[in-house]
Design brief:
The chain is an alpha/beta fold. It has nine helices and eight strands. The longest helix has 20 residues. It binds pyridoxal-5'-phosphate.
């Protein structure tokens, strides 16, 4: 199936409150151009250098989302143009994004990454840490970032019920915060190629899909 057909298929499945982030990491320019040509405008990348090169090469009406682990010393390279950073996983990183956004006279939309998977390896804050942060006043002291929601990754498993439970725990946290201390919350980023339908059923507003659209990534 062509990339255009895949994008069309996924987009047809999405509910009206859910948008597709085409995860184009490790893909060369032509597949991104193909996706762009059939109307895709949101792309997700996870490496700063690669993102900077693609941003320079592709049309300016693309909305670039950063979804990988972001090192503080690299924030400055993407601060001029990045639309959303999904993967804020430390206060140190949030402060650096605020500083670089200020230098660029911007306010950058950010999501806090929440650790919802059983697995040890996944990045992110615990649910309790998120509650403490959002109930505190640290973010009110960082005027150049706007915390617009949460991001999480489910366990890599065939047990779809546990995947659903993990997404539901994130969704519950999101809505509880939105109704109490974070009325600005608007994005719940969850769901990848294998689990995006479940994520959407549990309230995702941004699904991040790579392999299903573009095929296997070449990491060499
Ligand atoms: C790579 C990646 C994706 C896309 O995963 P696929 O399984 O290829 O759809 C989504 N989210 C994050 C954070 C990723 O790093």
């Amino acid at each position: 199936m062509s990339i255009a057909k895949r994008i069309n298929e996924v987009t047809c499945h999405l509910s009206k409150d859910c948008r597709l982030v085409a995860v184009s990491k490790f893909q060369p320019i032509p597949p991104l151009q193909e996706a762009y040509n059939c109307g895709q405008r949101i792309f997700g990348e996870s490496k700063v250098q690669e993102l900077v090169e693609k941003e320079a090469a592709l049309p300016k009406d693309i909305e670039w989302h950063f979804i990988g682990h972001l090192q503080t010393n690299k924030v400055k390279y993407i601060a001029p143009f990045i639309s959303v950073i999904h993967s804020v996983d430390s206060l140190k990183l949030a402060k650096e994004i605020d500083k670089q956004a200020q230098k660029n006279s911007r306010v950058i939309d950010c999501l806090l990454e929440v650790h919802i998977a059983q697995e040890e390896s996944k990045q992110g804050f615990s649910i309790d840490e998120i509650k403490a942060l959002m109930n505190g006043k640290v973010f009110s002291e960082l005027p150049n970032i706007n915390i617009v929601g949460l991001m999480g990754m489910a366990s890599f498993t065939d047990d779809l019920e546990s995947v659903r439970k993990e997404f539901r725990s994130l969704s519950t946290l999101f809505y509880n915060l939105k109704e109490s201390v974070a009325p600005q919350f608007k994005e719940l980023s969850m769901g990848m190629s294998n689990d995006y339908i479940i994520a959407m059923e549990e309230g995702s507003t941004l699904v991040r899909i790579g392999t299903y659209l573009f095929g296997q990534r070449n990491y060499n």
